Amino acid sequence: MAPPRSHSQPPALAPAPAAGHTALLIIDMISCWDFPDAEKLLPGAHAIAGRIAALKARCTRAGVPAIYVNDNRGRWRSDFPKLVELSLAAGGAGAEITSALLPEETDYFVLKPKQSAFFATPLELLLAYLKATRLIVTGVASDQCIWATVADAGMRDLEAVVPRDCVASQTSARNERFLRQAQEALRVSTTPGARIRLPAKR
Hints:
The structure is a single chain. Helix 1 links the parallel strand 1 and strand 2. It contains six helices and six strands. The chain has about 200 residues and is of the alpha/beta class. The two termini are about 25 Å apart. Strands 1, 2, 3, 4, 5 and 6 form a six-stranded parallel β-sheet that branches. Helices cover about 40% and strands about 15% of the residues. The relative contact order is 0.20.
């Protein structure tokens, strides 16, 4: 039997380390899609939502934690559960994306003020508690927030994988250009989500 926790000890940020030292990031997929250029980005996000959901299901079975990363949209009173609620209430394609990727109680989330999931967020601390050194990065926009996040991961000596069928941008041309640059400049794998190797099922 484990000894009782001392009242002086704060609870752990994460209940268990990430299987295979791997974590799944889902970036900016939960949204009300009411920002500039949203109408151009929404179709691509809608197209990849099912594939991200399938990858997330595989990760959950393998013990790989999912971390939702979203903009706080300049509103410093932002609340992620409220954003999920508003997105579902808005209806349309945005609500369909949120329904497909509905967060579970065991998932994590961070809110970011800028493009990178690392800038001014607790993500690095959370990954340390999870003992995660390999990130599977999915979501939108590939040549903005995904790019910034992957570059910042590299500067922290973290391995990043960007499944090519689980990211999108405002146009397919922009997305393809990002994928080429990710492979050539950032040296990251763009293996499709269904082919990404995960730890053995728990």
